[in-house]
Amino acid sequence: MKKIKNISIIGGGLMGSGIAQVFASQETFNINIYDNFLKESDIKKNITKNLELLKSKDVITEIQIDSILERIKFHEDLEEAVKNAEFIVECIPEKMSLKQDLFQHLETLCDDSVIFATNTSVMSITEIAQKTKKKNRLVGTHFWNPPFLIPLVEVVKGNETSDETIEITMDILQKAGKHPIKVKKDTPGFVANRLQHALWREAISIVEHDIADAATVDKAIKLSFGLRLPVLGPMENADMVGTDLTLSIHDYMLKFLESSPQPSPLLIEKVKKNELGFKSGQGFQKWSEEEITKSKERLVEHLIKIIYNK
């Protein structure tokens, strides 16, 4: 299998900088970042902040921080950033035309052997590859936020993505300390987002129909099956209780669950009223600045404890 050493990241925002950090945490890789909007100092600041957080939890040392940052090079010129690339991860805004044009342009700058990966969270890999000539080398690599903590990466096969491209990508991600999963079909939302938003649809519906308020819905999840999820997924759980019991429950219950293909009217109303959650201080619940900060900190603390036992 082809060994990859030189990785380029296109886009140095929240996801791009976090993904660069992931790869740079391994001595195996050299990282180049290109961004035509963000300054090098801003990108480096984001990465350093993440690294300092890990250091404060005794996950890494100051020496390791220095080594990680040394492996990351910043560029204002795209051609220079991808000159020696063997694997390129695109982390630009979720706009189809931007992604298509970028990969079309990258083909003029890169050798045919270079693998192109897109970090889109929902867009079709096949459609993103539409303007490229060598479609077999384009693959989806959906990292989850925050990418330096969440282990999962969805590796999505487009209609023309080669098996070799998938295998090399899976190998790179494993070497970077991630847990890649292979998504066999290019379908909207891939695997994890389909599951996540199926849950969100039902949760919002319960609030919309005044079965319970938002805080109660979250408490119901966090204090029941949410506690089992890290060690007991739904498919294993179905086998544990028995497919016969699962069938009986579904036969009775599924007709009562939310099945609308459209967004909730309550959600639409919230957005129209500028009740945007953390962004505005009001969403399904009210949020003070202190509560917002505590929520974000609580999440990071939880992830570090689970992943690093720190």
| Rounded Rg | 21 Å
Helical fraction equals: 40-55%
| Alpha plus pi helix count | 14
| Low-confidence parts | none
| Mean pLDDT over all positions | 97
Number of strands: 8
The percentage of residues in β strands lies in: 5-15%
Q: What is the 3D shape?
A: globular
H/E order of the elements?
A: EHEHHEHEHEHEEHEHHHHHHH
Characterization of this structure:
- By secondary structure, this protein is an alpha/beta fold.
- 48% of the residues lie in helices and 12% in strands.
- It has helices spanning 14-24, 40-56, 62-70, 78-81, 96-109, 125-128, 163-175, 192-208, 214-222, 225-228, 234-241, 243-253, 265-272, 289-308; strands at 6-10, 30-34, 72-75, 87-90, 115-118, 138-143, 152-156, 179-183.
- The protein has an eight-stranded mixed beta sheet.
- Helix 7 links the parallel strand 7 and strand 8 (179-183).
- The protein is globular.
- 28% of the residues are buried.
Summarize this entry quickly.
By secondary structure, the chain is an alpha/beta fold.
Write the layout of secondary structure elements.
Blueprint: E1 6-10, H1 14-24, E2 30-34, H2 40-56, H3 62-70, E3 72-75, H4 78-81, E4 87-90, H5 96-109, E5 115-118, H6 125-128, E6 138-143, E7 152-156, H7 163-175, E8 179-183, H8 192-208, H9 214-222, H10 225-228, H11 234-241, H12 243-253, H13 265-272, H14 289-308
Parallel strand pairs: 1-2, 1-4, 2-3, 4-5, 5-6, 7-8
Antiparallel strand pairs: 6-7
For the structure shown, list the relevant keywords:
alpha/beta, globular, 48% helix, eight-stranded mixed beta sheet, 310 residues
